[in-house]
Design goal:
Blueprint: E1 4-10, H1 14-25, E2 30-34, H2 41-46, H3 48-66, H4 82-106, E3 110-113, E4 115-120, E5 123-128, E6 131-142, E7 146-148, E8 161-162, H5 164-167, E9 176-180, H6 184-195, E10 199-203, H7 215-227, E11 231-233, E12 236-243, E13 248-254, E14 261-265, E15 267-270, E16 274-276, E17 309-311, H8 322-336, E18 350-352, E19 357-362, H9 365-371, E20 375-381, H10 386-391, E21 397-403, E22 409-416, H11 419-431, H12 436-440, H13 451-460
Parallel strand pairs: 1-2, 1-6, 2-3, 6-17, 8-15, 9-10, 9-15, 10-11
Antiparallel strand pairs: 4-5, 5-6, 7-16, 12-13, 13-14, 18-19, 19-22, 20-21, 21-22
Helix pairs in contact: 1-8, 3-4, 3-6
Amino acid sequence: METNFDIVVIGGGPGGYVAAIRAAQMGSTVAVVESRSTLGGTCLNVGCIPSKALLQSSELYAEAQHDFAEHGIKTGNVTLDLAAMLARKDKVVGELTKGIAFLFKKNKITSVEGVGTITAPGKVSVAGTKGATELTAKTIIIATGSEVVGLPGIEIDEKRIVSSTGALSLSSVPKKMIVVGGGYIGLEMGSVWSRLGAEVTVVEFLDRIVPGMDAETAKHLQRVLKKQGLTFKLGSKVTAAKSNKTGVTLTVEPAKGGDAEDLKADVVLVSIGRKPCTDGLGLDAVGVKRDERGFITVDENFKTSTDGIYAIGDVILGPMLAHKASEDGVVCVEKLHGQYAAIDYGKVPGVVYTHPEVATVGRSEEGLKDAGIDYNVGKFPFSAVSRAKVSGATDGFIKVLADATTDAVLGVHIIGPEAGTLIHEAVLCMEFGGSAEDIAATVHAHPTLSEGVKEAALAVAGHAIHM
């Protein structure tokens, strides 16, 4: 095997494999070091993709149980085959990981399985199952992603107390599940098991779910999820956990102080956030600086404090999202090849794949108020969108925030059907410096969900037609 390359990427996730493909397209010789036997990183193997597969399957199961009859479709007694559902999820993952392997072959990228350590600038030692391999490169890109943050004193065994990884492969539907953490991942996985029959309680340290999201949108999401059967204990912290063969007992107390109580569950999902995977890479020895939380310090070109070593994705500051990591990778390698490239983290969309979906980009109302920026608001409910009414998906709204003086779109927040798709109209508008009037003046096909975005933009100036 060739051991000398233009670029060695450590990590084969959405940041690393995309960076490798783009670099190869631009003429560089590239190797990717990945500790897993399959490419795709956490996102593809035990994160974004398998969770969305289960979300889709569980949503169909819930629809068959509760919604088909309204459409005149009588299915009789609907039963769950969990093993088949999990097998489908695994099949989807397998097909996509093979797809990345094909792309590597097509672009002549060398894949090296093992744990990579930077031993010196331009040198990477890979500890694999068949021994060590030494790679040399002009440039090293660190793309090792992130890992689950645990609770102090509480052991994640992936059986009774699980991370998002274990929550993807439970052998049976728990009667009771407690989700510790009211963020994106916890709400998504809680939704999956709730639809399949579990009683789900979400315990969140703060007094709201999805911290950082526009507060009105987050409040509406909580209200919808509560209707679906999820229970919320906000402003609460977990102080202890006792696990045995039959279940888990959590000790929970008010975050601001007060009497503790015990909550019992068959399974507890710990989902309080993620942290960068930067230990064990040899960074200190080669002078790569990190902050107190372990994030690697980089400049505008993604260069670390050591020449020839770069970092992208979850190991650096910015949204810990797969698509952000991929764009980091593209921008990094294009700059390495002398091209102009840029990414604005303020215009990176985020999506919660609950039902309904929630999608957001740019500033929240709270953020604008804190910054002292005058703005106008345009809101439009999906209940007034014809296509949403036809589809029976009328819960939610679109909110457009625009500068009070220039009308520039500063933020868009959507909760409702296909929110994750609809948000990209707003992202594109913001990337081009567009205004609410630009969206409002654009012809939208009828009947589509996208008409709601146009109406919300019209509402910024008080001109919504159908409300």
